[in-house]
Design brief:
77% of the residues lie in helices and 0% in strands. The protein contains four helices and no strands. By secondary structure, it is mostly helical. The protein starts with 5 loop residues before the first helix and ends in a 5-residue tail after the last helix.
Length: 119
């Protein structure tokens, strides 16, 4: 199994530090932090918006602002949500990512090895 990359570990740590700042404000404004379900709703909304941004990127949906800059922001934010949700669920996302990529790669390599290219 591959070891998690340093950049993935650093990204996770940074994401959790930002989440802790949000939790301070949630406590101050709402008297509680967001539940797992509220976090998932936030993530789902961002993923849905990425679909619209892809349409804007292709020129089939109008938005205000720069579609590429918005896509960069929302894709990075989606990674943030993933780190936050994994932490809340007690999932070691670094290990899960490495294991998942190893499993996918192995499956793809096996399929490639047993199939012939289209001529």
């Amino acid at each position: 199994m591959a070891e998690p990359t340093t950049s993935l570990t650093a990204a996770r740590e940074q994401a959790l530090a930002v989440r802790s700042l949000y939790e301070v404000l949630e406590e101050r404004f709402n008297g509680k932090t967001w539940s797992l379900h509220e976090l998932m709703i936030g993530f789902s909304n961002d993923v849905g918006y990425i679909g619209r941004l892809l349409l804007a990127h292709d020129g089939t949906w109008g938005i205000e602002g720069d579609p590429r800059a918005e896509l960069e922001h929302k894709l990075a934010e989606s990674m943030w949500w993933t780190f936050v949700l994994a932490d809340k669920l007690g999932i070691d996302i670094d290990e899960a990512y490495a294991q998942t990529m190893d499993r996918i790669r192995s499956g793809l390599e096996a399929t490639i090895a047993r199939t012939e290219p289209v001529r």
